[in-house]
Amino acid sequence: MKRTKVSTLLSTPALIGTEVEAKGWVRTRRGNKHVQFVQLNDGSTINNIQVVFDMNLFSEDQLKPLTTGSSLRVKGLLVESQGKGQTCEIQAKEFEVYGSADPLAYPLQKKGHTLEFLRDIAHLRPRTNTFGAVLRIRSALAFAIHKFFQEKGFYYLNTPLITASDAEGAGAMFQVTTLDVENPPRDEEGRVDYSADFFGKHTSLTVSGQLEGELGATALGEIYTFGPTFRAENSNTPRHLAEFWMIEPEMAFYDITDNMDLAEEFVKYCIKYALDNCADDIRFLEQMYDKGLTERLNFVVNNDFIRLSYGEGVKILEESGKKFEFPVHWGTDLQSEHERYLVEEHFKKPVILTDYPKEIKAFYMKQNEDGKTVRAMDVLFPHIGEIIGGSEREENYDKLMARIEELHIPMKDMWWYLDTRRFGTVPHSGFGLGFERLVLFVTGMTNIRDVIPFPRTPGKAEF
Ligand code: ATP
Ligand code: MG
């Protein structure tokens, strides 16, 4: 007999009255000497199916291994449920235990663990309701991202994870080497000789696929990347990981306005997709953690984002009369407290800030006429702060080179990037969305460590 998933059993009235087989893990067992109830979950939905054991058919001893966390296969009649809160249940006829879970040793024996505790058992936390919900939503969002771009005719481009360029400056990098770190080969001046390393040069894990994305966009027109990104961020904030996933669309012939339009349409699409396809999981997280979740998600989907310049934003902050931990004036990089003030207190809407001072943004951003600002855009969200960072790119070779020289950026390994400006350069734009920041927003979780299955942060890489 073929196993039916719990999600199907619970949502297919036509199955009622038929014999079914389910497989999964026991969440709880309770009852008395006449009847026992097992809540069975198989990960296909946050909802459990109730399995009813008539104790005339089974002995106490037989049911003994069915403790929280144990796994089993059960066959029986699917019937409409008398009890509240469930549509149908299985009247067990026959079952087989796959694996027991010693109640004295199983860490999830009891409910109600803190998220901090669960982080220390990240290998088991997917079995909790919370992480089941988060991981299903994460999966749905990943699918929505591909769906959105594929439907628009964007091509999925895989950019390298190992890179020899360290010019982007988006974050501190992890070095990749096969040299003996305790005794590396050295040149005459005593410096490590990277020509003897695996790639014949110094290499690192990528902090962004953008520069290679631009190579794709200036050939295929519109591309997006979706892959792992590594930053040796020693910041230990609830919004930074050392290993995270980033989506980076890059589009030929898009100016900054086209770029903003795309970013806004894109995040709204993803959030709407989750609302439409993950209702049970979102409802669960809302009840458990964040009473305003659905309302906030709908609000973002249904409202235009505010668009204003960095300069106007700073003016609002200066005139707010609010005491910020980090003082703010024209030229400072905005901290998350500033971003959240604009979004949560001033506008009460997502905000897209543009035209940042060139000093605080990357070298490749298109320079404005004023000589002071660049065509950057950051999308700022309630609860999260920056969720997207992007820009129109400087397509003019001379202007780009002037900026590179001004900043003393080591370009010797990046001649290939400059070729996009030497051969058939075009206006183009792109942005990066931190996948986990989106998952944070949609799930209402507050720590980025709780929206990725196996978080990598300073001092933590166990599971
Ligand atoms: P922040 O100011 O928050 O550090 P950033 O300016 O370094 O962000 P970008 O280089 O523009 O970010 O990267 C694009 C997007 O990647 C950001 O908008 C954010 O969503 C995400 N992101 C950046 N750093 C991290 C990180 N360490 N962990 C998770 N997501 C990140
Ligand atoms: Mg950063």
Give your account of this protein's structure:
- α4 packs across α13 and α6 runs antiparallel to α8.
- Strands 6-10-11-16-15-14-13-12 form an eight-stranded mixed beta sheet, sandwiched between helices. The chain has a five-stranded mixed barrel with strand order 1-2-3-5-4.
- β14 and β15 form a beta hairpin.
- The protein has 463 residues and is an alpha+beta fold.
- Bound molecules: adenosine-5'-triphosphate and magnesium ion (MG).
- Adenosine-5'-triphosphate binds next to β11, β15, β16 and α13.
Summed up:
The chain has 463 residues and is α+β, with helices and mostly antiparallel strands. It has helices at residues 6-11, 60-63, 115-120, 129-151, 210-220, 256-277, 279-288, 293-302, 310-319, 336-347, 397-406, 415-422, 435-443, and strands at 19-31, 35-41, 49-54, 71-80, 88-99, 155-156, 162-163, 175-176, 203-205, 222-230, 243-252, 306-309, 351-357, 373-381, 385-392, 428-434. Helix 4 (129-151) crosses helix 7.
Spatial strand arrangement across the major sheet: 6-10-11-16-15-14-13-12
Named once each, the bound ligands are: adenosine-5'-triphosphate, magnesium ion
> DSSP helix count?
13
Structural class, from helix and strand content? alpha+beta
What's the β-strand tally? Answer: 16
Please state roughly what percent of the residues sit in beta strands, choosing from under 5%, 5-15%, 15-25%, 25-35%, 35-45% or over 45%. Answer: 15-25%
The averaged pLDDT comes out at: 95
> What characteristic shape results from the CA principal axes?
elongated
Rounded to an integer, what's the Rg over CA atoms? Answer: 27 Å
Largest sheet: 8 strands, mixed
| First-last Cα distance | 36 Å
Helix-strand string: HEEEHEEHHEEEEHEEHHHEHHEEEHHEH
Helix % is 25-40%
Low-pLDDT parts are none
